[in-house]
């Protein structure tokens, strides 16, 4: 085939083709789940590059998760030979971080600024509340964090917040103090990344003009879940307003599905879609109506369910695939039964060779549901993987290690200082720390700088701590990342501390894993590699920079496009590998950690499943109060968002879909007696197959012990009642690993180390240990009561 563009455009339907090859200009692609939105976006980027309409440096693409960004980059590199590293493809947070790194001075940030994750942010607010005597009963720190995040999402600094009452007044004061504290410490939270880079663009004409010219093509996936600030940020990049309309240089393609808007609770605004059409003068709205993901029984369920929502933008989904399997519905007596059924079903699907384990997803509304499912999978020896549990970078020992590393980069990071000043314990008490904080506040300096003002034994201990960090900083100059982390782990005393800790073995392994993570980060990001010059034709394709002022350092021709790295636009300095790694750790912590290629069942919340697809999907816990969630049931909007969530869940499935509910459920230490979810009544009977006898309406339960004792009283006709919650005698939990059934020679699977071979077994019962050789991690002794080992068939 001689036409260069054609292979890319194969396998697109006419609407998709039109979307991929739209002439420059703004456009909205509004389409339902599985209609190829993400595929269109990726193909368009490839097409723009291949036809020479854009250079890699001229493209900015926003995705919802780091994982999605990585996937997009991977697909692009598979489609055509281009320097993808130069492209700005990432999440809003990731891209904002790039902008702020490049222009930190203009943004009023130190070059070494660090990112606070949600945990750090909470502890920073708590620290501030203590210092300023804030009544934590009246102003719970968690709520303050929400308040601050909410203000930032609306683009409001403290002075912009409308103050209507005393409580708000107080919260605004705390917001202001918090800002000052962050500024002093050189740290930014996620909301600040966004707001600060928005302000950077808004307030600096040359910078804004530079990026407006540079990014001739802006593409946004999952547009329905953008918030007000993100939309405003996009507008800054797209062009300046004239007469209420944007006079823009390039084109913005927004892709979304109003039916999949599931982040309203975090400020997402579906209204951005209508605003976009109006403010950008969008003439092209493309609808994609062919679904390529699911068989029609599954699609019929999705369509019928979502039809119960009002005020939709309106679109249809059809598929040319046949009906496929019916959607199977199961009613369990208890959550334990539900999990047992689910595991049996999974085992037989895998055994029959129908479906690979990694193609099976178990989705739930709330994280608390996963425990019982996990323990059943574990007992049955089915490898599984939980997305978005306690993520690696959020574990305590990792956060301790990162805090030391951050202090090397920035001694004024008080959050990190407080985290490790007395960890491992070195005799620095709470009183001393209070004194130190007071001194720092009086002097208006960081804790690090206030240390010299304290005298006596307390002062000596603190001075020793600070000296230890300073010596480490000196001693690791010029060292590679691996050796820096190694030295820090030893010199901080963390390794010794966990070695002496009876339960420290796991933590030591995690610290080892931190070194591995750094190693693979260095390889992936290409630190230490020779810089590669761009091929000439790519340089020529770069958009001309007509009026960029040299004073801003913006005239070097697209330095960031070439390095694909975080470069200070004032000095040309790049981030140290350590600083880059710390940033990566902070940004990655808020995201799923998916390990591709591992053949394990995938467990995740419905929220986390957005954009993904699986051959087989189980959705559990379809009970009033759980799904729809009780917090959302009281108002119409909340209920509609729950329905969209269910729509997202259903549309993840390609071939098989199971939906289940349980009459009773142990949640937060209480047994709930449940009414089955109203969503069942919104599904088309013809697409369903009931695996258990179908009961009509609610309140007709199979007998269970609580009912026999009269615990349950139906609260009246119709739906919309919360599930009744009763205290109940604790249900004994099944303990994994009592009879482990392992023998030398068996192949086993470990969540962290992967597959390995059992070499020896020692001890019995709770003390049983196995020696296992893992090809990638070496030989380890594992306590079977603790280690999650499963037998591989
Ligand atoms: P979601 O709303 O869930 O994010 P989406 O609209 O982004 O879905 P994609 O993930 O891009 O949809 O596509 C869904 C599936 O359909 C993918 O497996 C994709 O490869 C496939 N697909 C899309 N378009 C076509 C096509 N024209 N021919 C064959 N397969 C297609
Ligand atoms: Mg998508």
TrEMBL record:
Residues 296-611 form the UvrD-like helicase C-terminal domain. One of its GO terms (biological process) is recombinational repair. Keywords: ATP-binding, DNA-binding, Helicase, Hydrolase, Isomerase, Nucleotide-binding. It catalyses: ATP + H2O = ADP + phosphate + H(+); Couples ATP hydrolysis with the unwinding of duplex DNA by translocating in the 3'-5' direction. GO terms for cellular component: cytosol; DNA helicase complex. Pfam families: PcrA_UvrD_tudor, UvrD-helicase, UvrD_C. Residues 10-295 form the UvrD-like helicase ATP-binding domain. ATP binds at residues 31-38. PROSITE patterns: UVRD_HELICASE_ATP_BIND, UVRD_HELICASE_CTER. Its EC number is 5.6.2.4. GO terms for molecular function: 3'-5' DNA helicase activity; ATP binding; ATP hydrolysis activity; DNA binding. Belongs to the helicase family. UvrD subfamily. This is DNA 3'-5' helicase.
């Amino acid at each position: 085939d001689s036409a260069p563009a054609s292979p890319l455009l194969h396998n697109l339907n006419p609407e998709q083709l039109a979307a991929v090859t739209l002439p420059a200009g703004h456009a909205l692609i509004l389409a339902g789940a599985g209609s190829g939105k993400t595929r269109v976006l990726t193909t368009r980027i490839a097409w723009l590059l291949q036809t020479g309409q854009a250079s890699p440096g001229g493209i900015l693409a926003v995705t919802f998760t780091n994982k999605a960004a990585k996937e997009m980059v991977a697909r692009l590199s598979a489609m055509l030979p281009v320097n993808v590293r130069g492209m700005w493809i990432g999440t809003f947070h990731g891209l904002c971080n790039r902008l702020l790194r490049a222009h930190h001075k203009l943004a009023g940030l130190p070059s070494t600024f660090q990112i606070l994750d949600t945990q750090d942010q909470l502890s920073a607010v708590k620290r501030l509340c203590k210092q300023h005597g804030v009544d934590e009963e009246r102003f719970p720190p968690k709520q303050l964090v929400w308040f601050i995040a909410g203000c930032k999402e609306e683009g409001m600094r403290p002075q912009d917040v409308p103050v209507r009452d005393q409580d708000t007044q107080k919260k605004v004061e705390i917001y202001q103090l918090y800002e000052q504290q962050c500024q002093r410490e050189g740290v930014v939270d996620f909301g600040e990344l966004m707001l600060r880079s928005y302000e950077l663009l808004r307030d600096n004409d040359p910078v804004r003009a530079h990026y407006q010219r540079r990014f001739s093509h802006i593409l946004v996936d999952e547009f329905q879940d953008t918030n007000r600030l993100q939309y405003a940020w996009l507008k800054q990049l797209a062009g300046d307003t004239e007469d209420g309309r944007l006079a823009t240089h390039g084109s913005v393609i927004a892709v979304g599905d109003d039916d999949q808007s599931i982040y309203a609770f975090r400020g997402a605004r579906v209204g951005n879609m209508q605003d976009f059409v109006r403010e950008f003068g969008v003439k092209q709205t493309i609808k994609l109506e062919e679904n390529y993901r699911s068989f029609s029984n599954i699609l019929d369920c999705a369509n019928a369910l979502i039809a119960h929502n009002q005020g939709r933008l309106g679109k249809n989904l059809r598929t040319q695939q046949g009906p496929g399997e019916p959607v199977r519905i199961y009613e369990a007596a208890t959550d334990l039964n539900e999990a047992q059924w689910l595991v049996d079903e999974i085992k037989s699907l895998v055994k029959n060779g129908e479906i690979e384990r990694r193609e099976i997803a178990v989705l739930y509304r709330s994280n608390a549901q996963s425990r019982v499912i996990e323990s059943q999978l574990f007992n049955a020896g089915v490898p599984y993987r939980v997305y978005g549990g306690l993520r690696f970078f959020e574990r305590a020992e990792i956060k301790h290690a990162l805090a030391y590393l951050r202090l090397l980069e920035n001694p004024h990071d008080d959050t990190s200082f407080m985290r490790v000043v007395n960890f491992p314990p070195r005799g620095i008490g709470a009183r001393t720390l209070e004194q130190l904080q007071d001194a720092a506040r009086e002097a208006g300096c960081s804790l690090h700088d206030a240390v010299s003002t304290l005298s006596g034994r307390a002062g000596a201990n603190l001075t020793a701590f600070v000296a230890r960090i300073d010596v480490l900083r000196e001693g690791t100059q010029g060292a590679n990342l691996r050796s820096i982390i190694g030295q820090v782990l030893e010199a901080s005393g963390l390794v010794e501390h966990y070695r002496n800790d009876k339960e420290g073995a796991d933590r030591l392994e995690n610290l080892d894993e931190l070194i591995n993570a750094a190693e693979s980060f260095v390889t992936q990001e290409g630190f230490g590699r020779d810089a590669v010059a761009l091929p000439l034709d790519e340089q020529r394709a770069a958009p001309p920079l007509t009026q960029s002022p040299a004073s801003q350092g913006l005239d070097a021709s697209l330095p960031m496009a070439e390095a694909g790295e975080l470069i200070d636009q004032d000095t040309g300095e790049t981030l140290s590998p350590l600083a880059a790694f710390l940033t990566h750790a902070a940004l990655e912590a808020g995201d799923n950690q998916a390990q591709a290629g591992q053949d394990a069942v995938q467990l995740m919340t419905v929220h986390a499943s957005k954009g993904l697809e699986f051959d087989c999907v189980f959705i559990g816990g379809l009970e009033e109060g759980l799904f729809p969630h009780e917090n959302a049931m009281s108002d119409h909007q909340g209920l509609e968002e729950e329905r969209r969530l269910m729509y997202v869940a259903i549309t993840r499935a390609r071939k098989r879909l199971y939906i289940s509910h349980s009459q009773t459920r142990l949640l937060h230490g209480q047994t709930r007696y449940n009414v089955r979810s109203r969503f069942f009544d919104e599904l088309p009977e013809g697409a369903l197959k009931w695996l258990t006898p179908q009961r009509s309406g609610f309140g007709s339960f199979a007998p269970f012990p609580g009912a026999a004792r009269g615990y349950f009283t139906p609260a009246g006709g119709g739906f919309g009642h919360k599930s009744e919650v009763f205290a109940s005698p604790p249900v004994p939990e099944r303990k994994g690993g009592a009879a482990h059934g392992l023998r030398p020679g068996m192949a086993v699977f470990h969540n962290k180390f992967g597959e390995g071979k059992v070499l020896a077994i020692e001890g019995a019962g709770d003390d049983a240990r196995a020696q296992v050789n893992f090809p990638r991690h070496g030989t380890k002794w594992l306590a079977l009561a603790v280690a999650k080992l499963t037998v591989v068939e």
